[in-house]
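Input/output pair, single chain:
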Amino acid sequence: MSQMLIIAAEEMENPLVPPIPELVIGLLAFVIVFGFLAKKLLPNINKVLEERREAIEGGIEKAEAAQTEAQSVLEQYKAQLAEARHEAARLRQEAQEQGAALIAEMRAEGQRQREEIVAAGHTQIEADRKAAPTALRQDVGKLATELAGKLVGESLEDHARQSRGIDRFLDELEEKAEASR
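Output:
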């Protein structure tokens, strides 16, 4: 049996090494399939990969362009904001200046009105001061005439005489007052 085993072992090939005709047919089939894939499928795959790469690069370029545009818009907004702040500060300054001018104008108007009122008051006082002696003279004369009429017991109705008497009396009083000064 041992001889048979040796013969069987010689006839039996190594299971890891395929037979040569199968190896050639497999290699030939591989080259045909690889060539077909290289000619037909590989250009399509490369085309799709190239389109994808271009799309990605285009997207990156678009993103960079959008970012650049966004940055420029941001700068414009910042400039507009700074301009608006400057304008607001200018308007606030103008309002303060107008307010100060208005206050000064109102103060001057108040001063002018006060001076008019004071002048009118002085004029009125001067007129009252000038009218006071005449009114006092008449009142004193009337009271003196009534008192003299009561003392004498008769009516002193002669107006011309009353006026002369009163005027003489008051003139004498004024002369005494001026002499005592």
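The helical segments are 2-11, 20-152, 159-180. The first helix runs from residue 2 to 11.
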